[in-house]
Amino acid sequence: MSKRVLTTESGAPVADNQNSATAGVGGPILLQDQHLLEKLARFNRERIPERVVHARGSGAYGHFEVTDDVTGFTSANFLSEVGKKTELFLRFSTVADSLGGADAVRDPRGFAIKFYTEEGNYDLVGNNTPVFFIKDPIKFPDFIHSQKRDPFTGKQEADNVWDFWAHAPEATHQVTWLMGDRGIPASYRHMNGYGSHTYQWTNEQGEAFFVKYHFKTNQGIRSLSAEQGAELAGQDANSHQTDLLQAIERGVNPSWTLYVQVMPAAEAADYRFNPFDLTKVWPHSDYPLQRVGRLVLDRNPDNVFAEVEQAAFSPNNFVPGIGPSPDKMLQGRLFAYADAHRYRLGVNHTQLAVNAPKATEANNYGRDGLMASNAQGRAAKNYEPNSYEGPAETGQALSAPLAVTGHTGTHEAPAHTKDDDFFQAGELFRLMSQDEKSRLVANIAGGLSQVTRDDVIEKNLAHFHAADADYGKRVEEAVRALRED
Ligand code: HEM
Questions:
Q1: Is 178 inside any structural domain?
Q2: pLDDT tens digits, residue range 58-111?
Q3: CA-closest candidate to residue 58, choices 301, 229, 358, 349
Q4: Is 337 a known ligand-binding residue?
Q5: 365 CB under 6 A from ligand 1?
Q6: Which residues form the Catalase core domain (predicted)?
């Protein structure tokens, strides 16, 4: 079989891909060597800005199939019928490290799904944790700065990590989760995914519900101990990437069962916890899990850069029947992601194959910009309204309106009757077996004992004491023992 001809970017044949053109044998290189100039210049431009968080990740395609009727709660078309299947792309990630970081580290994992629905792409951009460290988006850049590399030392610093938490008592719940047994998943297949935030569902009758999403792994939860994680991360930085890729190559397609907790909108105001506070869960005894369907991953992307690095998920991509709640963190995220995509990928990132709608098409009057590849709208009129049958609005709200009251201002999140920063962290601690508690305490003490300032250690200890007296005592003793060593 004859080989295809190697060409320049413009399609002209390349004569020599081994030797650059020179002025005579041994002479300097000629500026007219277009193939060399293009090859070097193109290479210089291969990298794009990595994600400012969740830089390191792995992705796969699959589908979601509805197994249970949820039409009483949402009019979303992709959830409208038992048996209905929707194509999707899912990207898993670690949070704090950069693109070349190791997979087997103690860190939350991203669990970002793009459902290619017939009513447009629905992005659910969650984590493997049901809660988060903070409850107001204004703290997010400070939080992330404290967890990523220090500007002077160039590495993650226990001083910064714990100093932030010393000033964020609301993080105690998520810190307890992260330092516990699920803090280092054995692979992306062996962990749950959560929407984490509260979202709003609206049914055909316009009735509103608040929901929380839980994707339970059908592979079973498997985690690594601190020692196992350190060993694996040192040996094989790509452990989670390899595991996912190879499982799907072998046809061992990972799956998750989606459950939701559903709260009728009228119950939100008097619920014992603020249902829009991302540092809190809704105990299942209050709102039980209801099954919705099954998510399966069955196809690896052909090209990691094109499909995983350039994937763009935005919590603001909703479909009719699903909308935001007033969770302040979620509200901040509704802005942050598409803004990041415009910077990282450009204004036309929605035209890339992984990001474009697949089960419908985008029809609007957004035009042009850098790298417009599909000549949006082509010859059609580029203003609206028009007399030429261009796309027009539906007049149908995507989700139910929210009643608001009060004055504008920088308010703290309203506290409900059972709300404080520590109760649920204590509940999580008390749920653990003695062995789990011992590992949790050892993991916390391992980090906290490295902090150089006593006042920062004291403030953190006070949080564990406030969560549970035994929890505080054990962490304090373990930290003291390590510092006396
Ligand atoms: C106000 C708080 C937050 C802000 C401002 C924020 C901002 C960002 C930004 C700018 C990115 C990079 C996006 C990109 O370049 O494509 C990102 C990625 C991500 N964030 Fe957040 N984030 C916040 C909280 C959260 C929370 C609470 C979760 C989970 C519940 C979360 C999950 C993710 C995931 C999974 C990704 C990676 C998405 C992907 O795979 O491309 N973030 N975040």
A1: no
A2: 999 999 999 999 999 999 999 999 999 999 999 999 999 999 999 999 999 999
A3: 301
A4: yes
A5: no
A6: 7-392
